[in-house]
């Protein structure tokens, strides 16, 4: 289990006890302010602990939802506009307005770690919205994989998510043409 320093202080009540547990090998320091009760920790567990209010998005989500086999070189996360900037070069952070930020948010278990992630319907809308900035082959691969699971998708959710944006008719028409 990954713990923050403040959680360890609440549990063990002193920095001295924490340092002693580290020396005994009962707790491991992963990075500044992040500790674990095991030596090897999944990177998703660390990121989810560091940024509990962030939601995985775009390339990361397409991979986690098995819509592509391309492992992203960076981690894509979104936060509300009022959130502070992440100081981590391995994360591509985007911002959403508070009224759209949590729409489509769900939790999944990926490699034994529960993570905040957007559902497949929200990501289909985002993919179509960002078609021009997505490499063509990558876009086509994901669209083809959406076609394979189209029976599992909720058309109601897709319409609801598309209605967030001003060009919702174009988004829905493109999804209709390319997936359904």
Please describe what this structure looks like.
The chain is of the alpha+beta class and 180 residues long. The chain has helices at residues 5-12, 15-23, 43-50, 58-64, 98-101, 120-129, 136-148, 155-162, 168-178, and strands spanning 2-4, 28-31, 34-36, 55-56, 75-80, 91-96, 105-110, 113-118. The strands form 3 sheets. It has a 3-stranded antiparallel sheet with strand order 1-3-2. A 3-stranded mixed sheet has the order 4-5-6.
Annotate the secondary structure layout.
Blueprint (H helix, E strand, L loop, with lengths): L1 E3 H8 L2 H9 L4 E4 L2 E3 L6 H8 L4 E2 L1 H7 L10 E6 L10 E6 L1 H4 L3 E6 L2 E6 L1 H10 L6 H13 L6 H8 L5 H11 L2
Parallel strand pairs: 5-6
Antiparallel strand pairs: 1-3, 2-3, 4-5, 7-8
Helix pairs in contact: 6-8, 6-9
* Strand residue percentage: 15-25%
Low-confidence stretches: none
Count of DSSP H/I helices: 9
Q: What summary fits the major beta sheet?
A: 3 strands, antiparallel
Rough shape?
A: elongated
Average residue-wise pLDDT: 94
Radius of gyration, taken over Cα atoms and rounded to an integer in Å:
19 Å
Provide tags for this entry.
single chain; 180 residues; alpha+beta; three-stranded antiparallel beta sheet; three-stranded mixed beta sheet; elongated
In short, what is this structure?
With 180 residues, this protein is an alpha+beta fold. Helices cover 43% and strands 20% of the residues. Helix 6 packs across helix 9 (168-178).
């Amino acid at each position: 289990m990954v713990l923050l320093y403040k959680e360890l202080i609440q549990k063990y009540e002193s920095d001295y006890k924490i340092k002693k547990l580290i020396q005994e090998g009962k707790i491991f320091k992963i990075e500044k302010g992040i500790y674990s009760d095991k030596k090897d920790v999944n990177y998703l567990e660390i990121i989810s602990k560091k940024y509990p209010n962030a939601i995985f998005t775009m390339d990361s989500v397409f991979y986690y939802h098995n819509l592509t086999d391309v492992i992203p070189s960076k981690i894509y996360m979104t936060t509300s506009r009022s959130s502070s900037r992440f100081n981590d070069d391995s994360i591509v952070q985007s911002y959403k307005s508070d009224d759209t930020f949590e729409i489509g948010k769900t939790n999944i278990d990926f490699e034994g770690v529960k993570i905040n992630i957007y559902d497949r319907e929200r990501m289909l809308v985002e993919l179509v919205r960002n078609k021009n900035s997505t490499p063509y082959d990558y876009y086509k691969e994901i669209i083809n994989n959406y076609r394979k699971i189209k029976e599992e998708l909720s058309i109601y959710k897709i319409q609801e998510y598309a209605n967030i944006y001003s060009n919702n008719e174009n988004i829905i028409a493109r999804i209709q043409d390319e997936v359904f």
